[in-house]
Amino acid sequence: MAKIDMAKFAKFCKDNGFIFQSSEIYGGINGFWDYGPLGVELKKNIKDAWWTDMVRNPPPGPDGQEIRMVGLDCSIIMNPKVWVASGHVGSFADPLVDCKTTEKKYRSDQLNVCFVADESAPPSLYCAYLSADEESKANAVKKLAKLLKLKSPMVGLDTKPFEGVAKAGLLAFVVAPDVDQPGTLSEPRAFNLMFESNAGAVKSDENKVYLRPETAQGIFANFKNVMDSTRLKLPFGIGQIGKAFRNEVNPRNYTFRSREFEQMEIEFFCKPDESMKWYQYWRDLRKRWYSTLGIQSANLIPREQGQEELAFYSIGTTDIEYMFPFSDEPQELEGVAHRGSYDLTQHAKHSGLGDKLSYFDQDAWMADAGKRNTNSFETWVKTGATADEIAKYKFIPHVIEPSAGADRFTLAVLCEAFTEDSVPDANGKLETRTLMKFHPRLAPIKAAIFPLVNKEGMPEKALELYRSLKPFYNVFYDAGGAVGRRYRRQDEVGTPYCIVIDGETMKDGTVTIRDRDTTLQRRVPMTQVKAEIDTAMTPGC
Ligand code: GAP
User: For ligand 1, atom 20, which residue shows the shortest CA distance?
Assistant: First the structure.
């Protein structure tokens, strides 16, 4: 993907009402963002598309069967025991290093160092920089050249992860990203990312609570409630969209790594011996979903995590990565994880519910009815059934978890849509235009309706069309200025269709529909306009 100047891009997003810095009038707050009038529509369309395509209308499963999915909306603050059971209290931590001079904090696993490699002696200096940040790297290389009094290009210039240098006890030779002298970085230490608060009037350890760092645990904690209230049978999935909070050490790359963000998560529960086919199903479907919403396949890179990266309980995880224009390497958009039975096992243990979080496979039990003397599972268990025999009927389901970030995908959609091309102006002269090539389902405004001129009944006719579409779609009425300028304004905010009411409309009831990307216009009956938009908005993946 072509590089975008991110500062220029952030200004564009601000100027057009997509994304604002949170509390900007007070100087902002690092890692928090607001969505403006167009941004909120874009993000809502993304969440709605996910809910429609994954929860309400998922495509058939691997064997062509219908998939059963339901939704949840859990509280952000939960009983803190949830986070002990899930492992977040014990180990949801990033390795942190502090700079003694600037008091800045860095994630040690997100630092690289540059140095001059020389076979005859170990490097005398390492300059640290933020990995996946080209500007930070360029500054570190410049600093290294200056401190070593070397001319660029430097012979033997090399880079490696900071953590190896720290482990080798060489911190005294490392220059932190924001200083010019070595030896200011501390040893890495674990820093828990959960935001803490207190529930109730007294601030004490007894009523300490956490803002959830993921929506997933609310789903696991409600597994029994959903089973009991819906009588769902395996396999089935539970989806949830909601806020999550992480006290990220280095929020960066615009909204990519924020401290408050929204997740769109599915926990898909299935029989252990069918879990691999469901893992593949979700991995393929989730990648395809991004493509159907306009992300070019070339910019989407699924990456199977290596054994050394996997969580100890995970049987496999694929990160669906996107080639964000601020980085040379693809970055995670979503993780699709095979979590085995880890989470439900943990909650069964910590909640004391024991085998009440297990699933009893009534169909399998009844299918084997002729092979036993009793139809009572409890009585049969007492007849000396082995653990393997019992597990055929009663087991903790395995879980496939496609976990996506609504804000990360919003950022990817904005980056992907941002386009500059040239089109002829009113006099046929080529001019540069900026346009946002949003997929119609995601576009904040679906259609703009213009009267060609503000007379001869055209405004009234245009308002009639606008009012007929408004209950269904976010549409925009614009009667101001030359029509070419009105087109440009809509191109810039990604409106796929501009509809003009002109002299012909007043005679035969037809209007022009202009396509944003090709700029081509077609005439259609005004009564057909909604059907045209409906077609473009049809879900499918
Ligand atoms: N339940 C699994 C889970 O939370 P994760 O990989 O930590 O997995 C899932 O997060 C997704 O949430 C990521 O792929 C990303 O899209 C989004 N996400 C995670 N941390 C984020 C952050 N600090 N800012 C924005 N999005 C984030």
Answer: 257
Taking the CA of residue 217 as reference, the ligand 1 atom at the shortest distance is: 1
Does residue 541 surpass a pLDDT of 70? no
Name residue 450's beta-bridge partners. 500
- Site to substitute for ligand 1 among 247, 259, 408, most atoms within 8 A of C-beta: 408
**Quick check: CB of 404 below 6 Å from ligand 1?**
yes
Angular region, 340: left φ>0, alpha ψ -120 to 50, beta rest: left
Q: Are 268 and 61 spatial neighbours (Cβ–Cβ below 8 Å)? A: no
pTM of the model: 0.91
541 and 60 Cβ atoms separated by less than 8 Å = no
Q: What are the Cα distances from residue 35, in Å, to 255, 294, 295, 413?
A: 11, 21, 21, 14
Ligand 1 pocket test, candidate residues 403, 407, 409, most atoms within 8 A of CB: 403
Task: Determine if ligand 1 sits within 6 Å of the CB of residue 408.
Answer: yes
pLDDT at 291: 96
Residue 345 CA to residue 529 CA, distance in Å, equals 54
One-letter identity of residue 466: Y
| Residue 229 in tokens | 């209230």
- Give me ligand 1 centre to Cα 320, in Å: 12
User: What is the distance in A from the centroid of ligand 1 to the CA of 211?
Assistant: 15
Tokens of 386: 């082995």
Contacts of 294 (CB under 8 A, 6+ apart): 413, 416, 417, 437, 438, 439, 442
Phi/psi-derived region of residue 345, left when phi > 0, alpha when psi is between -120 and 50, beta in every other case: alpha
Which residue type does 375 have? N
When computed from its CA atoms, the radius of gyration of the chain, rounded to whole angstroms, is 28
Q: Whose CA is nearest to atom 14 of ligand 1?
A: 334
Which residue's alpha carbon is at the smallest distance from atom 2 of ligand 1? 403
pLDDT digits (tens, 9 = 90+) for 338-395: 999 999 999 999 999 999 999 999 999 999 999 988 999 999 999 989 999 999 999 9
